[in-house]
Amino acid sequence: MPKPAGIFSVILGIIILPFNNQITAHHSRANFDLDKTIQIEGTVTRWQYRNPHAYLQLNIKNNTEEEWTVELGSIPNLKQMGMERNSIKVGDKVSVVGNPDRNSQNPYLFFDSMVHENGSRYAFKDVFLYSGKAKEAGKNQPGSVDFTGKWDEERSRLATLIGLGLPDYSVTEKGKKLISNYKPSEEPSFFCQPVGLPSMIGTPYAIEITKTPDSYEIYFEFPGTKRIIHMNMKEHPENTKPSVYGHSIGRLEEGVLIVESANFIPTKWGIGDGLDSSEQKHVVEEYRLKEEGHILEITYTVTDPVYLSSPFSRTHIKRIVPDYVITDYEECDLEIAKMHLELES
């Protein structure tokens, strides 16, 4: 069987060394040794192609027989590296390179690359390359004139996955208590809980903005959610049912799309990593087109008197990506979402 060179694994290990704490914080992967890669070969005994992360189980026969578990990415990520549900089946022989668990007695690996016995190769680096190629191609295509189009974070996928670290919030006493008890393993997506507004704006996935006569609609590849921004309303209706995403109304002022959202329900990490939000949360977003419509600048400001002592703001820069194929985000599987917690124990 061909063996993966693992070159990217080595390079990635060198590149991310200064940022390991941020990567593990962002993805709760402190149990993996991100500075080290190993290679295992075996027979597939189970293939779970589900969100939020897929899992592969292998029977490894060396001097002894072991059952290893390999954790991969989300279904959109797998598709971007060319891996479909039927790419792997029980009984197939594969060779996998990845980051091992820090506990050498725990047969658990975080996926980097794989070679199938049929010669097919898959690598997580291809997710970064897919995004990068789409952004590069977009530079030579017409920009947006009305905010519509497909957009991806201008930062590299790697930088987006690393994250910006725990934000420097100005918090109330209630907020301080949450921050002091911050645990990356409590990230809501690990429990199939929705990623709320505004966190959904900065995920390492694309968005698509479309327009109707009365609204803008934004589809988020992750978490597979569509927001409606009502352009024909000046106030939020009194009978609007509160939700994780709230109710959004928009207006145009000198070419800037301003969106105000209210009517939220209390949400885990509803302001950002480690900080919940209350029903008093209010979010204002400003959308600006730059560089002849090739760049979309989104600045949001969050107020929530329960957890924030002053407003919290952040800006995200997105680039137009007309060639990007947005993948429908299949339903999150709660059993799969919690699987890493069991495997880390």
Structure description:
This protein has 345 residues and is an alpha+beta fold. It has 2 domains: 7-129, Nucleic acid-binding proteins (OB fold (Dihydrolipoamide Acetyltransferase, E2P)); 142-320, Beta Barrel (Lipocalin), CATH 2.40.128. 18% of the residues lie in helices and 34% in strands. The chain is built from 8 helices and 17 strands. A 9-stranded mixed beta barrel has the order 7-8-9-10-11-12-15-16-17. It has a 5-stranded mixed β-barrel with strand order 1-2-3-5-4. A two-stranded antiparallel ribbon has the order 13-14. A hairpin with a 4-residue loop joins strand 15 (282-290) and strand 16. The longest helix has 14 residues, at 125-138. The two termini are 33 Å apart.
**CATH H level of the largest domain: which superfamily?**
Calycin beta-barrel core domain
SSE arrangement, N to C? HHEEEHEEEHEHHEEEEEEEEEEHH
As for the number of domains, it is 2
- What's the overall geometry? globular
Strand percent estimate: 25-35%
User: How far from one another are the termini?
Assistant: 33 Å
The CATH topology of the largest domain turns out to be Lipocalin
Rg on CA atoms, Å: 21 Å
CATH class of the largest domain: Mainly Beta
User: Could you give the order of strands across the largest sheet?
Assistant: 7-8-9-10-11-12-15-16-17
CATH architecture of the largest domain: Beta Barrel
Number of helices: 8
Helix content: 10-25%
Low-confidence stretches: 1-27
Got a strand count?
Answer: 17
Structural class: alpha+beta
For the biggest sheet, the summary is: 9 strands, mixed, barrel
Overall mean confidence score, pLDDT:
87
